[in-house]
Amino acid sequence: MDRRGWIHSVQGFFDSWAAEELLDWALHRFPGRIAIASAFGPEGMVLIDIASRLRRDIQVFTLDTGLFFPETYELIHKVERRYRITVERVKPAQTIDEQAAKHGPSLWQHSPDHCCYMRKVEPLRRKLSTLDAWIAAIRRDQTPDRAHAQKLEWDAKFGLVKINPLCDWSSEMVWDYVRTNNLPYNPLHDRGYPSIGCAPCTKPVQIGEDPRSGRWAGLAKTECGLHQTPGTDTLRVLQD
Ligand code: SF4
Q1: Is 224 among the catalytic positions?
Q2: What predicted TM-score, i.e. pTM, was given to this entire model?
Q3: Among 4, 5, 14, 213, which one is most buried in terms of CB atoms within 10 A?
Q4: DSSP letter for each residue of 64-119
Q5: How much distance in Å is there from the Cα of 197 to the middle of ligand 1?
């Protein structure tokens, strides 16, 4: 049985595993060929903290679009100091200036799917081609695309194993872990930004609004294309 078939046959078994248990298993199952992908939201902070307690040599990467908030870049430095790791900055093929010269300025305003493809999806594909498994910080209740996330999945889009240790956690559970363990977090969360991505595409939200409504506000877009299944808008861009 190939890896994909094996995953499908056992994934129900893993669904009851706690985050720490699953991370421990995954880090031993794919040594040197597994990494945590993080944009340094509170979920990512929890994953990095749990994983760093299990192993010292964890690999962490971020899709550095070049458009993060200064607070996010500062948090990355804090994480590196606290856990004594080097976060790999996976960069797009084009700088922002090169992208502007080829596709026009502020591509995110008139074609955000295309921008996300070039600055996030393609770099992720390049990075994942070097791995056997990746660990994502998604939760099922964040977006409709994430509602059916499994703890252990075959990622058909990128062709490797995907581990979602926090997919059954609530936002309250995540923040409880962050506060109990005194983890660093992005200070923008205290200024009305529950979900933080690239600065041009992230706005603060009012109390009671959907926490992700500040991402691509005013557009139907809810995902970068990293955690979507085939058939979505971003994937169609990818195939154009
Ligand atoms: S979130 Fe916005 S700026 Fe960042 S890659 Fe996507 S469209 Fe571009």
Answers
A1: yes
A2: 0.91
A3: 14
A4: --S---HHHHHHHHHHHHHHT---EEEPPSS-HHHHHHHH-S-HHHH-HHHHHIII
A5: 8
